[in-house]
Design brief:
The complex is a heterodimer of chains A (443) and B (145).
Chain A (H helix, E strand, L loop, with lengths): L15 H4 L3 H22 L1 H10 L20 H6 L13 E7 L7 E6 H17 L7 E4 L7 H13 L2 E4 L5 H10 L4 E4 L1 H14 L9 E5 L5 H11 L2 E8 L4 E7 L6 E3 L4 E6 L13 E7 L10 E7 L1 E2 L11 E2 L4 E2 L4 E3 L2 E3 L1 H9 L9 E8 L2 E9 L9 H19 L3 E6 L14 E3 L4
Parallel strand pairs in A: 3-4, 3-5, 5-6, 6-7, 18-21, 19-20
Antiparallel strand pairs in A: 1-2, 7-8, 8-9, 9-14, 10-11, 11-12, 12-15, 13-14, 16-17, 18-19
Chain B lengths: L4 E9 L4 H11 L4 E8 L3 E8 L2 H10 L4 E12 L4 H11 L4 E9 L2 E8 L2 H10 L3 E2 L2 H5 L4
Antiparallel strand pairs in B: 1-3, 1-4, 2-3, 4-6, 4-7, 5-6
The chains are: A alpha/beta (443), B alpha+beta (145).
Chain lengths: 443, 145
């Protein structure tokens, strides 16, 4: 039945020298590259020179990767404030393209690339496609958008790097997507997970799934769950992989998960990851959750030092079952933006989601955190929508449900919670994204 | 004839006009309410109803985003005489069956009590055996019409 069950999985690694390097070899490479990038930005980017001078740091103080903590941070606001090209570290003539992201508010974040930056980007996406079991013979149907957004071009460059055929579709027009996928005999599809699910359901309905040659799906650019991955996999009989990237760092291809799905492998020879305590900025121990911060080690056009992603995750450097030794981070557990300190305890909305999921039912009900301050004490109220899966016509059972939710949340968050059961669809879902936290405290 | 009546149970937040809204949805769907009970707590209310067409009522409410489910209950008829309901309850208690909740409705010469119980079949047998009348579901949906 499943196309990928017909033959055993063979792990292919595009660049074993880097992807399976020992920790010492990787650190040596990172140290050389860090010293080089620090020197370049200090000499050529006034923004970084000023920041480093303010901190009393000179390029000579950076003797290796272990000194990265001495360097200044860069935030998205910094990048925006220097729109579009003020952070450029190469002459204008060396820039061969720009990509960008709209963000959800305000100005574009624009990222210029030198030819070498484009090559590195293609190489990283190529490593990721190889990780998904793809190679020269493959045909990759790319329905990420082609344009300023990095998704389309990133996967396209990746396909070129491994000698595969790229099918540059962009999204939209489901019928034409299905026709091209079938007629061109695509063997992989690259798109956002939500679009993959949409296409998968449309293709199942049209009855074309069995005529497709698709083996792998490469999905990213938005958060998705294990359940979603399994659903896409089961409809299309393929293996799906999580690709991660952000335009500020390079676009897709910063990290990718392998067939074992045990975290995303970071191409840390190019993008050095740190995980920092969001409150203190101190480095987190392995396995401890904090903010993911990247330094671009080899970028020419617009290198970034310690760029704060605001995404929360933890990192491990154990060797993966696939053989790679690259650092791996887990799926994000939240954003620093969403973190609330309630009675001194850090609370993330996703913890609430995880706790609600642990009650069974497969899908967490919609919820909303409301933080108030009453008599100088923080009070957390969680509204939980009661849909049919949780509804009982007996008030006693609903009270039990409320008590259980409160208990599960208390255990997960470490603070006591008022739980209020509300009707379905009463929690605002504007802009497709549910709002998860309302903070009424005047802090 | 089935004695299991499908009760329409509706979850309502304690918000102004919410009950009215639910009732209007049923009216618009041409669903008649035979019997009704409203239980309330601090945060929410529970509207329980016997209606002319429980499935249709549930669909209409769901279409408007209101959580509604169907719950099996039974309805026993008792005469308008002092102690007749107590007699019926005594029979149920003797059988060791727990009543989750109960509410009443009147129809002509007799009154009826709707019961949510853990063992409806047993209770129906007991009540019938003790000389009580128990509503057939189809007739209950059309009571008082």
């Amino acid at each position: 039945m499943a196309k990928n069950e017909s033959k055993p999985w063979v792990e292919t690694i595009l660049d074993p020298k880097v992807e399976c390097a020992s920790r010492d070899e990787m650190s040596a490479l990172q140290s050389e590259r860090l010293k080089d990038v620090v020197r370049r930005v200090y000499e050529r980017v006034p923004f970084y020179q000023k920041k480093m001078k303010e901190m009393g740091v000179e390029p000579g103080d950076i003797r290796g990767i272990e000194d990265i903590g001495k360097l200044p941070f860069t935030t998205k606001e910094d990048v925006r404030a220097n729109y579009p090209f003020q952070l450029l570290a190469v002459p204008n003539a060396d820039v061969v393209r720009v990509q960008g992201t709209s963000g959800t508010t305000g100005k574009l974040v624009v990222m210029p690339y030198s030819q070498k930056d484009v090559d590195v980007w293609g190489e990283c996406c190529g490593r990721g496609l190889t990780m998904a079991g793809l190679g020269r013979e493959d045909r990759i149907h790319v329905c990420y958008g082609y344009g300023l957004f990095t998704g389309g071009m990133g996967l396209d460059y990746g396909a070129t790097h491994i000698g595969a055929m790229a099918i540059p579709m962009s999204s939209g027009n489901t019928k034409r997507q299905m026709m091209c996928m079938e007629d061109f005999e695509a063997t992989a599809i690259a798109c956002t997970p939500s679009y993959a699910l949409h296409l998968a359901e449309a293709m199942a309905e049209a009855g074309v799934v069995d005529r497709l040659k698709i083996r792998a799906g490469i999905h990213g650019a938005e958060p998705w769950t294990e359940e979603m991955r399994k659903k896409i996999e089961s409809i299309l009989h393929i293996d799906c992989f999580d690709i991660y990237g952000l335009c500020e760092i390079t676009g897709p291809g910063v990290a990718m998960d392998c067939i074992h799905h045990k975290g995303l492998h970071v191409y840390e020879d190019y993008f050095y990851p740190e995980v920092l305590n969001p409150a203190t900025d101190a480095p987190c121990a392995e396995g401890e959750t904090g903010e993911l911060v990247f330094t671009t080690l080899a970028k020419e056009a617009l290198p970034l030092l310690r760029y704060r992603t605001k995404d929360l995750t933890d990192i491990t450097r154990d060797k993966c079952d696939c053989g790679r030794t690259l650092a791996r981070f887990n799926k994000f557990t939240g954003r620093t933006d969403d973190m609330k300190v309630i009675r001194g305890v850090n609370v993330f909305p996703t913890q609430v989601e995880t706790a609600l999921l642990s009650m069974g039912g497969g899908v967490a009900p919609h919820y909303l955190l409301i933080v108030d301050r009453e008599d100088n004490l923080d009070v957390l109220t969680v509204l939980v929508e009661v849909d049919e899966r949780y509804f009982s016509d007996e008030i006693r059972k609903l009270d039990e449900l409320r008590a259980k939710v409160a208990r599960v949340l208390h255990d997960a968050l470490g603070v006591s919670v008022n739980v209020k059961l509300v009707e379905p669809k009463t929690i605002d879902r504007s802009e497709g994204k549910a709002k998860r936290v309302i903070d009424n405290r005047n802090l | 004839m089935s004695k299991n009546i499908k009760q329409l149970s509706v979850f309502l937040e304690n918000k102004e006009g919410r009950l009215n809204e639910a009732l209007n949805i049923l009216a618009a769907a041409d669903v008649n309410i035979v019997a009704l009970s409203l239980a309330d707590t601090k945060d929410f209310g529970m509207l329980r109803m016997i209606v002319s067409d429980p499935e249709k009522g549930q669909q209409a409410l769901k279409a408007e985003g209101i959580t509604a489910s169907l719950t099996e209950v039974i309805a026993v008829q008792v005469s308008h005489a002092t102690g007749s309901l107590a007699k019926a309850m005594e029979k149920i208690a003797d059988a060791g069956v727990n009543v989750e909740y109960m509410y009443a409705f009147a129809n002509g010469a007799k009154a009826s009590a709707i019961l949510k119980i853990s063992a409806p079949e047993t209770v129906v047998d007991i009540l019938l055996g003790s000389g009580f009348e128990v509503w057939d579901a189809d007739e209950a949906y059309r009571a008082n019409q």
